[in-house]
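Q: Hi! First time doing this. I have a protein sequence and I read that you can turn it into a structure. Is that right? Here it is:
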Amino acid sequence: MSIISVKKLEVNYDGRKVLSDISFDIEKGDYVIITGQNGSGKSTLIKAILNLLKPKSGNIYVNGLDSNSFEDWHKIGYLPQGAVLSNPLFPATVKEIVSLGLLGTKSFPKTISAKDEDKIMKALELLGIIDIKNKLIGELSGGQQQRVFLAHAVVSNPEILILDEPTTALDPEIRETFFVTLNKLNKDKGVTILLVSHDVGCVGEFANKLLYLNEKLVFYGSFNDFCESKKMAEYFGTAMQHSICYHRHRHHQKPN
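A: Yes, that's right. Below is the predicted 3D structure, encoded as structure tokens:
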């Protein structure tokens, strides 16, 4: 059974058709890059999957349930686009922000147990931010904040992690570390990842599937299929296709 299944999805936004006739299945453990030009519907697709936008037609299933009936949203971690705070006096520490990822899953009264404390510490350690756990979130750099919000998204051990352009505020070195961390979550913990990104060449080193949108579904499948597709060479041009495939080939040729 697919962990996410999208069937004949059509979504309008502000009276304009943004997505049309979109169908695909994501299996448990997949790492999918969602890409396309600006305005192609990437963020709209993510919001529809999260049930934040209602489609005009079509269906979305999560763990076999229609998204309107699905209730275990705590099993999905979400890092929205532009998740950065500019107010240096925002009254919450790093640890408090991460702990909110657990409080959202609890019924009243919402309290943090000793077991929860352990989960929070592990999330902070995983993202390399345990040394700044008592700092105010607003005092941190954009890159540090992104790691805090990712820790918030993963602290509840989600089955699915959805990230919308998560590295726009990161410098190249931090970006690489960020992608390596996501890869560990995918490979070591079996987290299914959907990552919206323009940086296909870089992220493609780790992902196993590529989804390209341009209002409709241009391509969905493995990177091998993309790299060998004459249709995609005609659509993108051979130079772009080779650029994406070169980065992936180089990564998989690295010695262990």
